[in-house]
Amino acid sequence: MSARSVALLVGVNALLSIVLIALTHLWFEPRRSPTLAVLDVAELYRLKESQITTVLVNGEASDAQRANALRHAASFGTEVSTLLQTLPSECRCIVLARGAVVGTASQLPDLTPDVRRRLGL
User: Once rounded to an integer, what is the mean pLDDT over residues 5-21?
Assistant: First the structure.
């Protein structure tokens, strides 16, 4: 046999081995169910509402502070929706609204504290 035939034979065997190992891995790998997590969106809005209300009813707050608080309130929905779009890819999970979960969600990770910190609430 020539060196070229040996190299071709080794290459074909290596490729066939890789394909067989990949197929075996796919065949025997157990399917994992997707990871679930919950997020209390209503709590986020309640916290933001209380922050804005505190500034607006404060007698010592200036008009600039009140206007700034209203600007933050107007942009909060966009900020939350942007975060909700990126959250599943960051946690590699399916995010459920806490209100959509029937029963106790104690077994599911709660992302609400982390999201509260990220939104400054």
Answer: 91
Is residue 38 within 8 Å of residue 105, measured between CB atoms? yes
Phi-psi group of 110: left, alpha or beta (phi > 0 → left; psi -120 to 50 → alpha; rest → beta): beta
This model's pTM is above 0.70: no
φ, ψ of residue 94 in degrees (nearest 5): -95, 125
If one counts every other C-beta atom within 10 angstroms of the C-beta of residue 39, the result is 22
Whole-angstrom distance, CA of residue 107 vs CA of residue 25: 30
CA pair distance 103, 49, nearest whole angstrom: 27
Q: Is the dihedral of CA 79, 83, 86, 90 positive or negative?
A: positive
Helix (H) or strand (E) holding 27: helix 3-28
- Structural domain range at position 65: 33-119
The total of structural domains in the chain comes to 2
